[in-house]
Each structure stands twice: as C-alpha cells, then as structure tokens.
Design goal:
heterodimer; A: 266 residues; alpha/beta; Rossmann fold; 9-stranded mixed β-sheet; two-stranded antiparallel sheet; 6 helices; 15 strands; B: 401 residues; Alpha-Beta Plaits; 3 domains; 7-stranded parallel β-sheet; 12 helices
C-alpha cells in the first residue's frame, strides 16, 4: 500500500495580527505550522499503513523552509518526503499548484490513495485536492469524515462525506484522492525516536527540471489563471456592544427579546 | 518574465517590503530584498518601497498564450439541488448573476442537473434565468463529481460563457475544483463580493483569506470562464417572479453509469437543526456550557427559534457535540441573521467563523470575554438561567404573534 499525503506549510493564522498602520499581516514571530487539516490526512495515512503495511510519502510545494513541515511529518511516522521547490513555481494559484503536485505524484506512482486536508487555513479554498484528482484522472472523495472501508487488494474504498444536510456514504475504486475534515481522527504526537529519525533524514528537493514530463508553461504565475489585484483589511464590525442588564435573568431575557424582535432577526 | 524584481542598486535594505508582505514572501538577504516562491505578485511591497526599488511584472496575455477571451459571452449559474430541492445558495447566486449579466449586457443562464428536476428549471427562470440547460437523467440523481463535471465542461466548451458561478457548499467547491481544472479556468473560492469592472468587463472577485483577517480581490484576465464559488447567505435571495419567461433546453448526460467510478451507497440525514450554512438563526455553545447535558437548554432555544445548534471547538473537542456543529476556522463559516453565543469566550478561530453574522448576542459570565467585542448585545450572567428564560420569553411572544 502506498499512500501519498499532500501537505502545506501555513502561518499559524490564529497568531496573525493586522498592522494598525500598514493594514497588512504582521508575520514577524508568527510560527509556521502544518496546515491543521493536513495533520488529519497524515494521521489517516499512518493508520492505513499500520493496518495494511506499505509506506507513506509526504509531499509539499514551497520555499526551502517548508522542509520543516516535512520533517514534522517524518517524525510522526511517514516514510519518505519530497519538497517541490523552484522559483519557477512561484506565484502559483490553486490551478498551477494542483498541476505541479500532480506532476510530482506521477513520479511517485504507483499509489493507492492520495490524502489531503479539506482546505488550507491561509487560503481556505479547498480547490487543490480536486485539482490534483482531475489532473491525474482519479476519482475524488472530498470532505471525508470517516473511512468505512479501504481494501487495496480489492482496489475499493468506501467513505462518509460530511455535507451540509448530513453524511453521504460513497464508494469507488482505487486509486482515489480523499480530502479529510477534522472529525476523521485524532492525530498522534511525534515520538522521541521519530524526531531523531526525522532530524537525520535527507529530504530530496525536486525542481522544475525534476518533472520532465511537465509543461513548464503551466508552472507558477504563467500557469495561474487568477491574479490577486488588491489585498485589504476587512471592514471592522460596525457599532459597539450594548450590554443588557436586568434585575433577574427573566428581565434580561425580556429586554433582549424586545431588541431582537425590533431588529427583525427573529 | 513574470516576477518580482529588485533593483539592487536602489534597495536600501530598509525592510518596509518585508513588513508589508502578507505572504511572508520577502526576506532581506545580505541587506537586499529577495522574494521567494510564496510571492503572488500582489504588489503590496511595490507600494510601500520608499526607494522604488521593486517592480512586480505580471504575465501579460501574450505571455500566457491564451487569447479570444472576448468570444466568451454570458453569465452562468450552477443550480445546486439535493433530493429535488434547490439549495438557497442557488437563488442567492441567481440574484447576483442577474446583476452581473445586466452590467455586461448579456443573458443569464442556469444549469440544472439532476433527476426529475424539471420544476427546478422553471424556478430558475422565476428567479431570473433567461435560459436553462436542463440535464435530467437517473445517473444525475445525486451530485457526483464525474458525471456533473462532464456535463458542465461540455456545456462550457460548446457555449463559452464568460462567468460561471457555483455555491461555496461542499458539493459546489468539489465540482468547481474539478471543472476549473479541466477547463484551465481561473477559480476563486468563497467569494463575498462580485463586481464587473466597467472598463475591462472583468469580474472582480472579493474573498476573505487568512481566517478572515484579510480580504483579497482577484481577477482572471486571460482565461475563461471566470469561475467563482459564492459564500452562503452573503447575498439577498431575489423575489421569484413566476410570470417571467425563459427557454429550457434539455441536454443529455455525458457519462453512462458504467463509466462513473463513484457509487452513492447511503445518505445519513442529520436533524433539521444541523444545516448551519443555511440557518437564519444559530444558537451556539462553548466551554461555558460545561458538558453534553448542558446543551439541552441551547437545543431548546434553537428549537423555539427555529434555528440550528452550533458549538465552539472547545465543546466539540471535549466530545459534548458532534463535529458537524462546529463553527470557526476548523469547522464551518456561518453567516446567520442572528448568532447567540452562549458560554463562548470568543477565540480568534471562533470569531473567524461567525463574525459576519448580522446580529450577535453574547451570553457569558466573564465580562472581559473577547466575544463581547464583536457582539451586538451582551448579557453578563449564568447561561443556565438566561437561556431558559429566553426560551420561555420567545415561546410566549412568538406564540402570541
């Protein structure tokens, strides 16, 4: 069994602050982390390996420091890691990112499953997973909250997808691409031995030349249909809080009910 | 070349660009600014550079090698339906689609895919479509990526619309990602603003990023169609007009059942109180609720108000409420008319998921809780006294209305 996990190194957006004058993100001192949704993808791949044998490869695209995210995944138990890094990949939008990752995955083939987080917390698009699936012409199962069945010998997978109205149970053939939501598992912590092993690991860096079958016109900005033209701070929430007080909870509740009915939100 | 160029003779190494970059894409190397792979050429650094040492060269249409964008005409909306019922996001998009089509002077087309969904095609016209492509086939009964994408891709290739909108729901994002990949179209996720630039006819798509900390406006100059997924409940639902007329064009399914890899085995419905995306009212609980049994009074209030039950990450991680209820960065982003936060302190991850609600009520014992900074109304007190009192009050008032 070969599972490939695509991860992204992101700034810990919970620490991100907006500079009061320049209105841009203050990144100084903000830690880089593995995208939280990707940690569930890594965990799911490790569990598949424990159950079925085989190996787990983690893949990321980014600058040299993204190596740290890969080391973290190796410390958790992944077997191999590949860093896609080249100035030619700079400025990739989700289309070019999916294209480049898919090209790398072709080199890592054969595989039974590709796992991704449902989206990254910096971009919040959820588009790269489906993009990779489509590039590779494998079925995509997105927003997966449970892996009911995974049988690499029979080439079959059945999952539950978390949709707005409930959970959809779907099955398909392998290989397939799965994007996962948080509910799917509880990620493990790295062991001391794992961290030591990861510290010694040599992580290969693949540049544009390492993907000879790719069309370089589809890398980076050139392959990216979308352009960011401006970035601005969201308008602040208008108004200040009105504190409601009452002698009793019932008084306060009556006062609030009055306001909400007047605001026509009920 | 399309990249950020630094005039090393002009760069003073002041670091203004490093601070201005939202993407962590610039570092000072040997006292000179240098961009890395994270650079998306947004130009924020160019604006702040006091030495005018930076230049962001974007690819021009010739460099991309795509042309003929002006041969694409029309605005399209994919009408999402589930078990024969159109999702509210579909009609919200139709309102926007109508406006964009008007600004461009082009017709609005709806794409309705499903089985036994002729009535939705008629509704689409009432909500503003001039034309509907209706693919009605047993293979389309539930939304599956492959057969749905195959139809949309073929229709786009045949009819060349300039804009294609889909809902930013699980199905919409799944499908949009597949279709845009196939077409090499630009796709912008989760838009909260859509405007036509009158000079260029380009769609200016605005969306939140970094957990809502920044907004980005995105265009797609050289590829068509310009695709976007649209966030729930940002735009008004237009009033349907059943007297409107339009053309319904039946189109065949593209993939036969045996060509489709995915089979839907079952659907496990959640209670009506779950659909957070569509909910007008959400009653949400956090750490202050204290345990699974504490949610009973929140559920009761949600039922009285006809709303959905939400929860903070703390409550979900403690196992008090299933994950499907989680609001916030690693849960769902919601935009109800009314959000009642009970015993939720207001961590930034939670605020990212709900701070665009129209009215926010915070009920918390700690008057210093950050949730009060975004709240419209606040009550400091014991939620186990106030929430039941609210249920009683609304039961009385709504019963009498």
């Amino acid at each position: 069994m070969h599972a490939i996990v695509c991860i992204k190194q992101v700034p810990d957006t919970t620490e991100v602050r907006i500079h009061p004058e320049t209105h841009t993100l203050v990144r100084e001192g903000v830690a880089s982390i593995i995208n939280p949704f990707d940690t569930y993808a890594i965990e799911e791949a490790l569990r598949l390996k424990e159950r079925h044998g085989g190996r787990v490869t983690v893949l990321t695209m980014g600058p040299a420091q993204a190596r740290e995210a890969l080391k973290e995944a190796l410390a958790l138990g992944a077997d191999e890691a590949v860093l896609l890094s080249d100035r030619a990949f700079a400025g990739s939008d989700t289309w070019a990112t999916a294209y480049t990752l898919a090209q790398a995955i072709r080199r890592l083939a054969p595989f039974d499953i590709i796992l991704c987080g449902k989206q990254a917390i910096d971009g919040d698009t959820g588009q790269v997973g489906p993009g990779i699936a489509r590039q590779l012409k494998v079925p995509q199962l997105t927003y997966v909250c449970r892996l009911q069945e995974f049988d690499p010998a029979a080439g079959r997978i059945q999952v539950e997808r978390l949709l707005e109205e409930g959970r959809e149970v779907v099955a398909c053939s392998l290989p397939a691409l799965v994007t996962v939501v948080k509910d799917i598992n509880q990620p493990r912590f790295a062991t001391f031995m794992g961290v030591r092993r990861a510290a010694r690991a040599q992580i290969p860096v693949w540049d544009a030349q390492s993907l000879p079958d790719a069309d370089p016109a589809f890398f980076g900005l050139g392959g990216s249909p979308t352009q960011v033209v401006s970035i601005f701070q969201p308008p602040a929430r208008e108004g200040k809080v009105t504190m409601l007080v009452g002698d009793t909870p019932a008084d306060a509740a009556a006062c609030l009910a009055e306001r909400l009915l007047a605001d026509r939100v009920i | 070349m399309s990249e950020l160029t630094v005039d090393t003779g002009l760069c003073t190494g002041c670091g203004a660009c490093v601070d201005a970059c939202s993407f962590g894409a610039i570092a000072l190397v040997g006292g000179i600014a240098q961009a890395n792979e994270r650079c998306i050429l947004c130009g924020a650094c160019v604006e702040v550079c006091p030495a005018e040492a930076l230049q962001a060269a974007r690819p021009t249409p010739d460099m991309v090698g795509e042309s003929g964008t002006d041969t694409y005409r029309g605005v399209w909306v994919w009408v999402e339906q589930f078990q024969g019922q159109a999702g509210s996001i579909s009609w919200e998009m139709m309102g926007q689609g109508r406006r964009l089509a008007q600004d461009l002077g082009v017709p609005l087309t709806a794409c309705v895919l499903g089985h036994n969904v002729q009535h939705i095609a008629a509704q689409a016209i009432a909500y503003g479509a001039d034309r509907v492509f209706l693919a009605d086939d047993p293979t389309l009964a539930t939304c599956r990526t492959e057969p749905y994408a195959a139809i949309l891709v073929r229709l786009v290739q045949e009819h060349r619309p300039e804009i294609l909108l889909l809902g930013a729901s699980a199905r919409g994002r799944d499908l949009a990602g597949a279709v845009a990949t196939e077409l090499h179209a630009g796709l912008t996720a989760d838009c909260t603003g859509l405007e036509i630039d009158p000079d260029t006819r380009l769609l200016r798509q605005t969306r939140p990023a970094f957990g809502g900390n920044i907004m980005a406006t995105i265009i797609c100059p050289t590829h068509r169609p310009q695709m976007a997924t649209v966030r729930h409940r940002v735009f008004e639902t237009p009033l349907p007009d059943t007297r409107r007329t339009g053309q319904i064009i039946a189109v065949p399914a593209v993939l036969a059942e045996e060509k489709i890899a995915v089979r839907v085995a079952d659907f496990i419905h959640e209670s009506a109180s779950l659909n957070l995306a569509d909910a007008r009212i959400i009653v949400s609980g956090g750490r202050g609720v204290g345990g699974p049994e504490g949610f009973a009074c929140l559920r009761e209030l949600a039922t009285v108000l006809g709303g959905a039950l939400g929860a903070s990450r703390a409550a979900v991680d403690a196992g008090w409420v299933p994950y499907a209820h989680q609001v916030g960065q690693t849960g769902r982003t919601v935009r109800p008319d009314l959000y009642i936060a009970c015993g939720i302190s207001g961590a930034i991850q939670h605020l990212a998921g709900m701070q665009t609600a129209k009215v926010i009520v915070a009920i918390n014992q700690d008057p210093q809780a950050p949730i009060f900074h975004v709240a419209t109304y606040g009550i400091v007190g014991d939620l186990f006294e106030i929430v039941p009192a609210l249920s009683a009050e609304f039961r009385r008032r709504l019963g009498r209305r």
